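Work through this protein:
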Amino acid sequence: MNATPTACSDLPNRPHHGRRAAALGLAAFALALAGCATPTPQQYAAERPALDLKTYFNGRLVAHGMFQDRFGHVRRRFVVEMTAQWQGRDGVLDERFTYSDGATERRVWRLTDLGDGRYEGRADDVVGAAQGVAAGNALNWRYTLALPVDGRVWEVQFDDWMFLIDERTMLNRATMSKWGIRLGEVTLSFTRLDP
């Protein structure tokens, strides 16, 4: 005869201490995760100097950067030469990339100041529009980029953070993911060349 219970009703009638402990443990874990929520630009509202996109991205700029895969290995290094100009609430940021292997790339962003610290950005390889929110010295862009990889195009999501350090220097860290899986990070240091 098989002594293994075949249904819940066959189990001995015992207190459910194990289930209660598991439920409490799960609730504690959920609360811990809630404390690890992702940052928002509003958390940086008091930080100075305040980032005004129209002031910082105006004139000539240069950035030095790298892409690291999800294991932290540097896969590409690059320099970006940029020019930017604004007319009213509309701006153009022309980026020219030169990679350490000699490859080049160009991306032209069309930016719109929507007011209240909100921005929208469009470029030929951006799917839809990038949405940006600025507060204090921080700006967070979220967008999907159509990225060519080995003859195919992958749509990858970017969570892109920019932090103004001083009037000339800004640091940028962007996390790249697909299907919720982190693929890597892009790190850049921007320098304004024009006063």
Summary: The chain has one domain: 42-192. The first strand starts at residue 59 and ends at 69. The first helix runs from residue 17 to 34.
